[in-house]
Design goal:
The protein has a domain of 69 residues: Serine Threonine Protein Phosphatase 5, Tetratricopeptide repeat, CATH 1.25.40. The protein is built from 5 helices and no strands. α4 runs antiparallel to α5. It is elongated. The N and C termini lie far apart (53 Å).
């Protein structure tokens, strides 16, 4: 009986978590957030930091779990000299993904040992 309750509890928890994850995915229009992010990147690299910041802000408004949106919002604010806002955006991005980097990681070249 005790084992049956344990198994039943595990099944219920698994079902609850999978439902919660599905519900969260539906909460945010990730496609729209990604479009704003891409537009923000274009503007950022054209040095249109103020307009880029608006796009990144919209990215995180649509999807508050978009760590990269917060990081680039921080970069935009930094370029605009808005250090307090930059720090807050970086902090929010770090809270979501402390390992995010805009630079793709690559494996070390053959013959070179990673340290």
């Amino acid at each position: 009986m005790k084992r049956l309750l344990t198994v039943l509890s595990a099944v219920i928890i698994t079902l609850f978590l999978s439902t919660a994850i599905s519900a969260q995915e539906e909460l945010f229009d990730t496609k729209a957030a990604e479009e704003h992010f891409k537009k923000g990147l274009e503007l950022y690299f054209q040095k249109e930091y103020s307009v880029a910041a608006k796009e990144f802000k919209e990215t995180v408004n649509i999807n508050p779990n978009a760590a990269k949106g917060y990081y680039f919002l921080g970069y935009s604010y930094y370029k605009l000299g808005m250090m307090k806002d930059a720090n807050e955006a970086f902090d929010q991005g770090y809270q979501l993904d402390p390992y995010y980097s805009p630079i793709p990681s690559t494996a070390p070249a053959e013959g070179i040992k990673a340290q």
